[in-house]
Queue: 2 jobs
Job 1
Amino acid sequence: MSGFVAIINTNGAPVDCEILKWLTDALHFRGTDRQKVWSEGHVGFGHALYGTTFESHYEFQPSSLDGEFWITGTARIDARSDLLNKLGLQSELRLDQIPDSDLILYAYRAWGERCLDYLLGDFSFVIWDKGRKKVFCARDQFGMRQLYYSQIRESLIISNSLYCIQQHPAVSKTLDEGAMAGFLLFGDHTWLDKELTVYADVKSLLPAHSLVLSSDGFMVRKKYWDIPANIPLLRYRNENDYREHFREVFKKAVCDRIRTDRVVLAMSGGMDSSSIAAMLCEIQNEDNHPFHISPVTVVYNTVHPCREHYFAGLVARRLGLSIHYIDGDLYPFLGEAINTTRPLEIDQPSLWMDIMRQESLLGRVVLTGAAADNLLSYPASLASLRAAGNPFKIVYDSIQLRKRYGKFPGLGTGLLNKFRNIWPINGSGGSAPYPYPSWIKSEFEEKMCLKDVWAERWASSGRLFELRSRASLLHESLLTMDWCSDDSVMKNEFPPPEKRDPYLDIRMVEFVLSLPAIPWLFNKHVLRCSMKGKLPGEVIERPKTPLGMLQQSLLELPGTQWVDEWKAVPGLKPYIERSKIPRLAGGVQGAVSSYINLRPLMLNRWLGCLSI
């Protein structure tokens, strides 16, 4: 995926071209096709291209249409033909020769900051508006692409690479304590605050937000999109119309993500990725530009219970695909540490890197179905059932679902979950899925008010959602997650492939909001019905099957004594009481305890990569 950087000196001083080139060179691992810099007075842009579309052959960022508006960024714009029509340029431009960055410039020239109302896809970019002397930045609606910024002294530095922005001499390497606390409490600081990065001087622009730096140096961040709240429900007489409508929207979402000749698919044996595979094959048979499909599947044969080999094989044989299997049994638990852009709970880091490496050898674009559960499987709240009308139809559909799946859909009260594997939070009235960590250093805990943060986080999760709107439920399901995967490693040995998820598509979201929750959103009923005849029956009827507690299986293997014998690096001491961490070798504490109590070790390894 391409890398970019921008430097804007708010005091009007000329950009230091040596620093700009230095930062652009630091992006080489992100874009090996070509690098380019541009500067004019107090504004400078850099770009490292990693072409992932046919049109990127014509891309030469930083670029401008007329010298008035300049852009640097990374983008894949969807519904390109529709956008060109809205711009009134369909008769003037050849769409197959217009890179996505130029489409953004045309949109900005026509609509200014309102261009974001018309842009679909995954993007982050910076535009210099010369006439208005302002900088305009934006990040896509779901945050699939990253955008960092640092306002230091009299400069604003922007990039989609944390490594790049850290190379600027004015940006400190001081760690952000909130990010460290977020990892220790929740396993990822983005659950606590998505604006934080691990560095105190660097922030992340939130998904669906823009940033404007005006001529007077005043910076404004603004939310430009949210889950739409007033999508009317579809009222088809024929159930087949729902299925065909879904297939039409799903096909557009997949098709817009494959403007390339080689597509890699992160495939399990479940419905989500298998449905993408089926749609890819359908498009391949119709498309005038054939592309090669390379599914990649991770399997376990002995270390951990796993049936992905069997089910993925069924799909591959049905569709005529050849799967690249990766044997997870061959990779150690917590092998060589990786210098990631934030502490992450990765049980087999060498496997994680090998997956990325093998994907990059097979193609530059990887399709994933990671967001399907969040989009297609949310409960039918009482508010959404009332909106659907006709209670007799709801009862009838519920009975039919009971016959097919062996259970009735719930009403969204969440009462059953309240009694499963929970620990009360003292005085909060909410519940947490695991206990509060016992090994956090008391001084750090008090300084950061961590018990209050913990209580507040889980208290909100205990609310009944029976009266909440469908948009509110989907907002929580889709927009609280961190979907960004384009800057996970500080500096890679190879350009990481670009991940794209057709379930994270505004057109898909709006269609799902228009579906009657019963029957279509129970057990992904709409997806299963739409894939009938396209996928093997065993896969369509297969219930949701999570991989399970792989971490516990790995801990139970011989030779894990070292997880109790590690030495703390100096940088860990402000956060952790090492002596309070229980013994974990052999998985003796159980899966939940292991999950929580391995975090100090994981943070220690991450800090070691930083040589702190």
Job 2
Amino acid sequence: MTEKLIKNYSSQNFFMIGLIIMIAAAIRLKTNFSADLIPGINGGYYPLLARNILETGSMNYPDAPLVHWLCASLGAIIQLVTGLSIDNALIASARLIDSLIPPLVAVPVYFLSKQVYPVMEKPEPARYIIPAFTALYLASLMVLSGDMTKNSVGLVLLAAFLLHSIRFFQYRKAKYILFAIIFLILTGITHIGCLAVAFAFILISSSVSLIRSAQKKIFRNFSIIMLAILLFISVSLLLLRSDPDRLTRVTSFYLNPLRIFETPYLFLLMNGQHPYSGFLWHNFLIINILSFSGLIILIKYRGRIQNHEQVPTWGLAILSLALSSPMIGIEWALRYHLMAWLPIALLYVFILRALPGYLLKNATLWVFAALVLFSAIAGITGKRMTSITRESYQDLWNIPSVQIISENDLVVARHGLEWWTGWVLNCHTGKEYCLVPADWNKYPQIFLLRQKKGNNYPGHQGGGQFAEFPVPPGSTLVYSSVFFDLYRLEAPSTKDYYRGDLPLVQGTIRTTGAGQILIESEGYLQRVSLSPGIQLPDLPADSIQEGKQADIWGRRVPFSLKIKAETIRIYR
């Protein structure tokens, strides 16, 4: 084959990848700029933190910093070039970053495909169909867009990390370790969930290598595993040191890894509950079918995988199964089910070459091509909802004119409203259930903002309603409009109860028994066991009675739907 032919062929492949990236970016631009606000429940989060950075040089809310600094920097450039107000420039910046960076996930996948399938080796379409799947897959276009920029950008960096980690396991060259470390650091300062997946791949692949290795290599591979564990714990704790909420969750997971199996998604399905709907449900089915099929194919044709590719291929297969698993607890499932498609795509790069005969190869490619087509159509025709309507957003701008709230005050609201509240009112903001008594010593005033109409449920056509928090006794109504009521919250007395986190279950007590109760919540019965020494704030022990409303905090029991109650708030 002549050098000119190879060069022309490579140019064609680069053109195809560029075209894929442009199509994905165009769909995401349509999603982001056709909405009145940034789509999704957390749409206001990114411009709010970017404005914090430009005004104070830091973020008011602890988080992985890379995306927020990118948003702030691009927003400043847009303002300088276009003359837009800083608020409009930051919203445009957040939309552009979410539209243009995530499609780049196709690039590292393409380079792996190009490496596995040398020039002109069949099946040629594998070099761009699998990368197209990663850039255009429905989970990326319809769920990880708008308000999930950190997740999407983190997956791009995770893909680059996986590429160089795979190359290291294949070729054992130091340069691949260097690139892997660079992308690991970038992943860590972008999204902690993607960082966890990166370390999971290291642990799984090192364990596979340990099992396959000769006796003399066992100590080296075991050392790699232990080093990876220590690095992950150290790096994650370092990144989360200023984020108490996430730090608490991650630390509790380290102390009890079985927490990942609390309230498994599969058990909810067996109980008649369906936490996923729409694209989330489609994604769940697709990733499980692909991951299980990939494992079966790998087991059957493992001898056709080249020896130096065995470790990363098995690592990707096990990682794909783990991230797709229906046994993951619902708290973690949504995060990892939406990441599983990336290692699945990389797995099939190797599997496609192992399949015997063009019939099986082409059939598999047609499956991925159909998924790409379906996802692209869904992205073009679908719409992501904003957390609040345009009319309610405009009404929110009327609150500053009454001059009730200062920049040092705290305004709490339901999830989905709090970020736009901080954005418009230019004050501290948060969720009502996060309040603790000490907050009244930190802020001059604390307010509760309740929305009466105009709130959407993002991600579902037609919208829906989010539950608003009840008004605490003794609160004062200081502002009311068509869309909002604003209450000033009084400092809590010893009889008031503020836990600082969301109840595990809220509902009506239906039956009580020896050491346990049944709570009806959203049409389903939840079994709750009562821990010894259970706390009942300001209420006698006999307050747990049928028909009463209750909020319950405590611990979930792994591999079950049970909750072990530690604190119960009974509404009189």
